[in-house]
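Final report, section 2: Outcomes. Of the targets proposed, Pentatricopeptide repeat-containing protein is the one most frequently requested by collaborating groups, and we therefore present its record in full.
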Amino acid sequence: MPSSPPPYTDAATLTPRAAAALLASCASRAAAAALHARLLRCSRAFFRSPYLANCLAAAYSRLGAAPSAVVLLRAASRPNVFTRNILLSALLGSGLLGDARRLFDGMPQRDAVTYNAMLSGYAATALPYEALRLFSSMRESGVRPTAFTFSIVSSAVASAHHGQQLHAAAVRHDLAQLDAVVGNVLIDMYRRIGLLQYAARVFSCMEEPDLTSWNSVMSAYKDQALSGAVFDCFLSMRRKGFSVKGFTVSIVLSTCSDVKDFAKGDQMLALCVKMSFLTNPIVCSAVIDFLCLSDRLSDAVQLFRGIPTRGSEPCNALISGYARSGLMEEALSLFAVSIRNGVVPTEFTFASVLRWSSCFGLMEQGTQIHCLVCKLGFQDDVIVSTALTDMYCKLGLTRHARKIFRAVVAKDLVLWNTMLLGLLQNGRGKEALGTFRRMLKCGIRPDRITLFGALSACSLEGLVAEAMDIITLFKDRYHIMPSLEHYTCVADMLCRAGMLKEAVDFVENKLPEFSAATFSNILEACIIQGNIVMAELVAEKMVMQKSRLSLPYIVLAQIYGARCKWEKMAGVWRSMESQRAKKAWSCSWLCVKNHIYVFTSEQILHHGKGATYEVLDLLFWDMMGQPKKREGLGCIQLFSDCP
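The predicted structure is given below as tokens.
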């Protein structure tokens, strides 16, 4: 890196054009300052024309010395549009957005470079509405936007309305079809705001899509879980002669992992080996994730150990693979070793570790990782904040979760949904509804997960009418149609409100086909509320549909037995046997001194029995809100119904 300019030492040999070439080749601020000083010593006549002053200011701005450029250009004697454009960029580079806007408003002449600089300033300072307003003003003033203009403005788009307006402007200027860069920007924009059909339309209208275009549309299909479309795009791309790159392979391989299509995944794995893509960290992480999901953890570990340089992506994939397999100690150990080896953790590393730490109830490890997050300066990252919010909600520490949630300035949809569902997990329905309402006021476009959270909150609070209004709102304003999980949630809400007959009618009218899980929930509600008539009705419906769950057969047999209808009871038992209905077993777990004990209702004795039931004893009295009156109240008294 040169510290001084090449040896042009006098005014006779150093022309303005040669000086401009030297400034363009300067690789450090010291070199630019040295050349500036030499030019002043040779002759101040060099700076009578704005040309060389512009070149020098551009060099200062490029090398990170924007304040020097500002001082130089503010003293310019005859500024032109280029001078003002460079000064505008320098002011924005110094963080002086207000000064830049005043200069912009006072400029007698503006071109596309002027608008692009100001748009970049608004985009960098997270002022999307100002950027969109300025783009509209740019078009009204007759300045033709460039491909870079659309690239900047697309990052400020957060709604379908603004996205369609930007797309229309690109079509009007013949850039959406003819310019691959603009087409790719529009595809990514529609992908980000969730309008897949528009992204596909942009791609189909492009005259000459490039490899980035194919990758963008495949990523959009992957986000919408349209695995078939991803595979079709990959085959079409290869037929058209495009060379396969590592990023393309990682998209397809990740899609195979998402849908658990192990046959196609093995084909992609063979392609990776054939084309030597395993040295690419992104591809390598996708392969490790695929191997872990296909129960080949040992192969993933072997691949990881063979990597010459282990970056953050492969570490993230193997940490998540360990944790997904229940090997939390190995996951945390790899996390610690990677940090000691100088691998700087990313937001995805923290997200993986925090997610699985909360799943296994490892509070101490989770709080330690939180401290490391703050130490490394990741506390403002929305991905890490989302993972921390999720962890504290799962650990029951909603106060800490709310504190982290409030500290995030630019909250995205995932963070809002995480906070909403976290409050629901802790039985805080009113707070969840309040979060949902604030989310809509902030202009965040909800999705199906948001709808499920809002309906679940209404179910907890027994707000039937409000739940129906929310379903109508999502249909009319956001064009989100409820699915099975949403209708199941509404049925559960009606059951909680004691409206069992309405729940049965609702499910039969709304669901296109029989759902054993939904009717099973209604049947359990009938039993809890002691409505034997409705329980018999629901159980008979489930038996007629040849359900493979054991609950309706058991309930119906007990009802017939209580009425001495022995033949019908025997028929129910025979039907249960012919359908091979099985009881759905569930389990619980406790974490005692970093050891996780899993047990079912059939188990009285197991490993760690003493400590486990002591904790259960304390939890029981804590839920009852009573002081513990007697020492040694054992598991037999608490679980007297256990066999």
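The beta strands are 587-592, 595-600.
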